[in-house]
Amino acid sequence: MTINRKAIYAVFTAADNSSASFTEDLLALGIASRTDATPLAMEWASAKYKVALKQGQRGMTFVRRNTDAERAMYRVLGVCFPAADKPKTKKASANKQDAVEKLFKSWSALSGAEKRRFARMQIER
User: Fold this and answer.
1) pLDDT (tens digit, 9 = 90+) per residue, 58-81?
2) What's the confidence (pLDDT) of residue 95?
3) Are 39 and 76 in contact (CB under 8 A)?
4) Rounded distance, CA 66 to CA 68, Å?
5) For the purposes of burial, counting CB atoms within 10 Å of the CB of 19, is it exposed (0-12), middle (13-18) or buried (19 or more)?
6) What CA–CA distances, in Å, run from 65 to 19, 45, 52?
7) What is the Cα Rg of the chain in Å?
8) Is 105 among the domain residues?
9) Number of domains in the chain
């Protein structure tokens, strides 16, 4: 079987361009982010699949979890606001420094008199 790469690449290009066009269409309608679109997608899925919504502690939610309506909502949001388009954020990491290096810098910052005083304290112990 011969693979028609041009046709496959055309499908990939259309899929790649479609998510951008959906995002642009929503932006023109005043929806700028996934957060703004989520409540409207929930209402749409609720009406389409005839599933009730309820007010939860963190906002609106479906009465039952993992329903066709909930999956449709996430699917539509994923197409309109692809995760690949999100800016990458660096994870917060502790600015860890080697303990020996830290002690050496502290030792180097001491004056000569302070170093001698420290040495005398160690001998007296």
Assistant:
1) 888 898 888 999 999 999 998 888
2) 67
3) no
4) 7
5) middle
6) 26, 13, 11
7) 29
8) no
9) 1
